[in-house]
Model the fold of this input.
Amino acid sequence: MSVGGLALSANWLAEGGYVRKFRTLTVHRAALAFLAIYLIHVLGMIYTADWAFGMKDLRIKLPFLALPVISGTSEGLRPKEYRMVLMVFVAAVIFGSLRSLWELLTAQVTDVRQISVFISHIRFSLSVCLAIFILGYSLHQDWYPARAVRGLQFLLLLWLGVFLFLLQSFTGLMVMGATLVLLLLFYGWRAESLRRRMLLTGLGLLLPLLTVIYVYSLVRVVHPDREVDFSALEDRTALGNLYHHDTLNRQTVNGYPIWIYLAEEEMKEAWAERSAMAFDGKDNKGHDLRDILIRYLSSKGLRKDAAGLAQLSDEEIRLIENGVGNARCGGYNVIRSRICKILWEYETYKWTGDPSGHSVLMRWEYWNTAWGIIRGHPVLGVGTGDLKQAFARQYELMGSTLDPKWRLRSHNQYLAVFAAFGLLGLLIFLGGLFLPPRWRRPEMPFLFASFFIIALLSMVSEDTMESQAGATFIAFFYSYLLLLPAQHERET
Done:
């Protein structure tokens, strides 16, 4: 990405014509508005104490300076060239997905997120989402009319949809689904034909309704209400050992209490006969294997003793070794697995009060911490370089129960900007995002709309712009799809 950015910048400089380019830029209000995003980071250095971190942040966000200038002052591309750039991106995403598949099939993967070997799996999932929409648009617009090419594009589109599930990026799947729904509603509302309007709008409303029904049915399955008579618990296992029953801790999994019918020594001996992994050690994901085993047995309504463990298959033993703590939540059903995990996080937090290691609940803690910083610096924020220190101080002020290794920043780009630059900076940031489309392309072309929704949604649960991959993704496609002169649109 750095080499690509430097090559584009070097080419722009080698072209010359600086006076013309400068004049073009001064009247290109959409490019100037987008450049304001980088400007607030520069101005934020004025009241920054940590210059080293601030300069690092400015370097990461250099695409927000270079790419709008390059796109806004360059000549437009011909249709064939414009499409070729987008298809090269799609080809790169396809290659990345196949490389990830190879990693999944050949490497000892303990966490599926590891298969994204080039960038983080969340950032890569955003590229996959955009590539899907590019392929769909290419098919709709008949960019490549040859039947074999259209067939290949359709197969690649299907593969990327499957790959999103293989990647198990819940963020990517949610962004993909939400973008599709919003596009259906947006273009359905603007459709001239009543029939088309009803069809698109109806699909846009039906998809989230079906999702809600599916999620609700899943919650009822993995979190049912079960009545347990704690006064009639048996005292001994089939081997004659005493059970331990913690009737005060009513934590459950799939509705079954976890901390009753527990015979640890008996279970430990039985486990040693089934697995080479230590009962008191870690599983392949770094969790305490003992806890995973107890949860898994509980999730099936089995007792935590030798008899309960004997009812597990060899495949289930492997699942436990790989950190699966719920019999209903293994496999590649990402939505089901994620819902199970969220419910488990909530159960754990309810009894321990500690969100550490639980992504959804930690995000809530991150957001609360960001709001604490914002309340202390509402107008101008803490500056470009002081955000990391401000979070560290705020965690201490709040008496956060988060483990220090989990005390990260906001995981929400809007809150990150608000905390760093205050209300004034947030308004400039939002203006830099939303004003250019209104000025430049009031009709909102499909590809830009797809990208724009993907970017906006990703910044709700991630501070997307705080990494080089995220900053480059947003700055490049915003500039390419919106700020570049529209010569190509005459024939697409």
Observations:
- DSSP finds 20 helices and two strands in the chain.
- The radius of gyration is 26 Å.
- Residues 63 and 265 are 58 Å apart (CA to CA).
- The longest strand covers residues 252-253.
